[in-house]
C-alpha cells in the first residue's frame, strides 16, 4: 500500500462496519472532520534551494523523550476493536519506529502490558499516557501511579471533553458497548457502579467540572511533565504557559468533539505566536502526508500526532501494518523536508507556507 487512503480502504474492508464508523467518524455533520484534511490542501509550500546536504536528521527531543521523527502516535481508544493484538501491536510498532506513543487511557489493554510489549522491542520506549481526569481524584491518582510504575515519561491531559461529542454514526449503528471480551482495562477498578469497560462507561468518566485547578492538582501529584491536549484558542495557550504546563497539543480531537471548530492547522500560527517558544507545541488532526507534517512544523509545531492513520495500519495488518504506516509517513516527510531545502525539522520556517 502506498498511501494512508489505501490503508483506510483496506481497514474498511476488514472491519465490522460499525467499528469502522467508530474509528472514522466525527461529531454531528463532520464539518471539522473534513476540514482538518481540507485545510492542508489549501496551503502551498515554498521551498528553499541550494541548501543541500547528504544527510538529514529527523530526530527531535520532546520534554526529555527522544523521538526518531516529529511524528507521534496520537492517543486513540479501543485498539483491540481494530485488531486482536490491539495496543500491544501498536506499542511494538511505535517502539520499533523509535517514536513516541501516547497511550489512550481508554485502551483495551492495560498500561503495564503495553509497556512490557514496547520494552520487548526497545529497552527504553517513549511512552506517554493520556488522561481523562475525573471526579474521583483518588482513582485518577491511582492510575497516575500505575502509569508511572509502567515507565511512562509524560502525561497528556485531554481538555476538550467536558462532555463527549455526539457521534451520529455511533447512534445510527447503536454502537455504545464494546463487544464481549473487550474492556477498558485501565478503568477496571474505577468503582462499584462503573466497573465495566464499555463505551458508555467511558462517557461517564469525562469530567464536566475540569478546570485549571485540576491541572495544578495533577502537577502536584507527579514529577513527570504534564501536557494538555485539545486547545484551539490562543488565550488558552497563554494560560497554559501561565499555569506552568510542560507542553500543549493543539487538537480538535480529530473532529469528534465540537463540530464546526476550525482545522488545527488554521489556528496553529496564532497559538504558536501566543506561546512564543515558551513550551513545546504539538498538533494533531488530518495529518495524512509528509507535506502536511512540513506545513505544521513550518507554522510552529514541534511535532505532530497521527490518530486514524495508525488505526488503519493496525486494522489492515496488525503490528506490521502500523510499522508500514509509520515508515511511510517518515519517508514521505523526509522527502518533503528535503524538497523544501531542510535538513532538520527545525529548519522549516513560516515563510515557506502560503495561503
Ligand atoms: C477512534 C478514535 C479514538 C480516540 N480516542 C481518544 C482518546 O481516548 N483520548 C484522546 O485524548 N483522544 C482520542 N482521540 C483523538 C486523537 O488523539 C487525535 O486527536 C485525533 O485522532 C487526530 O486526528 P486524526 O485522526 O485525523 O489524526 C481519538 C480519535 C479517534 C479517531
Would you write up a description of this structure?
Pfam families: FMN_dh. InterPro entries: Aldolase_TIM (IPR013785), Alpha-hydoxy_acid_DH_FMN (IPR012133), FMN-dep_DH (IPR000262), FMN_HAD (IPR037396), FMN_hydac_DH_AS (IPR008259). The chain has helices at residues 4-14, 17-24, 31-41, 79-82, 86-97, 111-121, 137-150, 168-173, 199-205, 212-221, 234-242, 264-275, 290-298, 308-339, and strands at 44-45, 60-62, 65-67, 71-73, 101-103, 127-131, 155-158, 226-231, 247-250, 281-284, 303-306, 353-354. With 355 residues, the protein is α/β, with parallel strands linked by helices. Residues 191-200 have low confidence and may be disordered. The protein is globular and about 60 Å long. It contains 14 helices and twelve strands. Helix 5 (86-97) runs parallel beside helix 14 (308-339), helix 6 packs parallel to helix 7 (137-150) and helix 11 runs parallel beside helix 12. It has a single domain (4-348), classed as TIM Barrel (Alpha-Beta Barrel), CATH 3.20.20. The strands form three sheets. An eight-stranded parallel β-sheet has the order 4-11-10-9-8-7-6-5. The site of flavin mononucleotide has 22 residues, from loops.
Q: Give the structural class.
A: alpha/beta
Low-confidence stretches: 191-200
- State the CATH topology: TIM Barrel
| Cα separation of the termini | 31 Å
| The top level CATH class name | Alpha Beta
Question: What's the CATH H-level superfamily name?
Answer: Aldolase class I
Strand order of the largest sheet: 4-11-10-9-8-7-6-5
Radius of gyration: 19 Å
Q: Strand fraction band?
A: 5-15%
Q: How do the helices and strands follow one another from N- to C-terminus?
A: HHHEEEEHHEHEHEHHHEHEHEHEHE
Question: Helical stretch count?
Answer: 14
Number of strands: 12
- Helical content class: 40-55%
What is the CATH architecture descriptor?
Answer: Alpha-Beta Barrel
* Domain tally: 1
Can you give the mean pLDDT? 95
Shape: globular
Family: Belongs to the FMN-dependent alpha-hydroxy acid dehydrogenase family.
Pfam family, one: FMN_dh
InterPro entries: Aldolase_TIM (IPR013785), Alpha-hydoxy_acid_DH_FMN (IPR012133), FMN-dep_DH (IPR000262), FMN_HAD (IPR037396), FMN_hydac_DH_AS (IPR008259)
Protein name: Alpha-hydroxy-acid oxidizing enzyme
Amino acid at each position: 500500500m502506498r498511501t494512508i487512503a489505501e490503508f483506510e480502504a483496506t481497514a474498511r474492508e476488514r472491519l465490522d462496519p460499525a467499528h469502522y464508523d467508530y474509528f472514522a467518524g466525527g461529531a454531528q455533520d463532520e464539518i471539522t472532520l473534513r476540514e482538518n484534511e481540507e485545510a492542508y490542501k489549501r496551503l502551498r509550500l515554498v521551498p528553499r534551494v541550494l541548501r543541500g546536504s547528504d544527510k538529514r536528521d529527523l530526530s527531535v527531543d520532546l520534554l526529555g523523550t527522544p523521538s526518531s521523527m516529529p511524528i507521534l502516535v496520537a492517543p486513540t481508544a479501543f485498539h483491540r476493536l481494530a485488531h486482536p493484538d490491539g495496543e500491544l501491536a501498536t506499542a511494538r510498532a511505535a517502539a520499533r519506529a523509535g517514536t513516541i506513543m501516547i497511550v489512550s487511557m481508554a485502551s483495551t489493554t492495560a498500561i503495564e502490558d503495553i509497556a512490557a510489549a514496547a520494552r520487548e522491542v526497545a529497552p527504553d520506549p517513549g511512552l506517554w499516557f493520556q488522561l481523562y481526569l475525573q471526579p474521583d481524584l483518588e482513582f485518577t491518582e491511582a492510575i497516575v501511579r500505575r502509569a508511572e510504575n509502567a515507565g511512562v515519561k509524560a502525561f497528556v491531559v485531554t481538555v476538550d471533553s467536558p462532555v463527549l461529542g455526539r457521534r451520529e454514526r455511533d447512534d445510527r449503528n447503536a454502537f455504545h458497548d464494546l463487544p464481549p471480551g473487550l474492556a477498558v482495562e485501565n478503568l477496571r477498578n474505577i468503582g462499584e457502579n462503573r466497573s465495566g469497560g464499555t463505551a458508555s462507561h467511558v462517557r461517564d468518566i469525562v469530567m464536566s467540572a475540569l478546570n485549571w485547578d485540576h491541572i495544578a492538582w495533577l502537577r502536584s501529584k507527579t514529577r513527570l511533565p504534564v501536557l494538555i491536549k485539545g486547545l484551539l484558542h490562543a488565550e488558552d495557550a497563554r494560560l497554559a504557559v501561565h499555569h506552568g504546563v510542560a507542553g500543549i497539543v493543539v487538537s480538535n480531537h480529530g473532529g469528534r468533539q465540537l463540530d464546526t471548530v476550525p482545522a488545527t492547522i488554521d489556528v496553529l500560527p496564532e497559538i504558536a505566536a501566543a506561546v512564543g517558544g515558551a513550551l513545546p507545541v504539538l498538533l494533531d488532526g488530518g495529518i495524512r502526508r509528509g507535506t502536511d507534517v512540513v506545513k505544521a512544523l513550518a507554522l510552529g509545531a514541534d511535532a505532530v500526532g497521527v490518530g486514524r492513520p495508525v488505526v488503519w495500519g493496525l486494522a489492515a495488518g496488525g503490528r506490521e501494518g502500523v510499522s508500514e504506516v509509520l515508515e511511510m509517513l517518515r519517508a514521505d516527510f523526509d522527502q518533503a523536508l528535503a524538497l523544501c531545502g531542510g535538513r532538520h525539522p527545525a529548519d522549516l520556517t513560516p515563510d515557506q507556507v502560503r495561503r
